[in-house]
Amino acid sequence: MIAAYVSGHGFGHCVRTAAVLGEVRALDPSLPIAVVTAGPEGVFRQAVGPFLQFRAETMDVGLVQQGALVIDTAKTADACDAFARSLPARVEREAAWLRDVKARLVLGDVPPLAFLAAARAGIPAIAVTNFSWDWIYGHLARHETRLAAPAEAARAAYATAHLLLELPFAGDLSAFPRRQVIPLVARRPPVTREEARRRLGLGPEPAALLSFGGLGLPGLDFQVLAGVRGFQFLSEPTGSSPPANLRVLSREDLAARGLDYLGAIAAADVVITKPGYGIVSDAMACRTRMVYTERGDFPEYPILVSEMVRWLPAEYVSNADLLGGRVGPALAAVLARPFPDPPPMDGAAVAARILIDQAR
Fold first, then answer.
1. Cα(5)–Cα(222) distance, integer angstroms
2. What is the C-alpha separation between 57 and 259, in angstroms, rounded?
């Protein structure tokens, strides 16, 4: 069995781990797979199929945020302190479970607990990620000194990893003693843009999808988008009355049309978002341009911004302009940019072959 432990922070960790496990299932249908995460179960069942053991458990703190764009470092430190107090018992419980299910390999993206439990159970652990929590917490400790301790604890846990599969857009991953660079892990769109738009009944105007990782965007009154001419907007449920040029798409709406959220990205000409690994890789795979805004002092952000533009037409808009609905110029500018050739995007298959070899 491969037992995957996945951070529940945002959707990016779950999306890429699910893509890897989907390739594992395709290459070796008989290999048992288990997933432990606070993230959405449906993402994994869609990728892996029905023969999946799933446990809904919080595996790490990640970050406490006020919506998609603001990190609450004090509350993050509080949560880390509380989690650390329960960590020894959690490690023992997970190690016992790993032995009980006869796990041969742990895959971590990238809760430190996964690596501690694997070491305790005496089985190898492989990480797949472009950033690690020791790097994130160490960076944020400049603002909240209490995060220095979780950073050091995470670094010690990662030091026990058998191998890191290092993804593009990588930060400081020096905590892992052995690393292997792999290509981008990206989901392939289920249908063409034309077919996705047909299923959604979209008109000829360019479509812009507002995507903020399921965390929402407090402070955005969607009515400000009413004045943006020449575009139709798509969004998950907003909680308020949408303007006439905004189409609300729930997950249920998409499913009724044979689509998932990746299908919505494929239907859009532009995604308006904060950069994160998941949405950037999805946009690249779907050939959907990006208008992006800053996301607080998150050290992954400048790396993504500097590197993603090699493969993805992108335009910046400030938080203030986004919240004020002043996105028209950025949308027009990014639509005028050509798409460069894509990078290799077979990282899921590369990772899956490595995992299967290690689990045998």
1. 36
2. 27
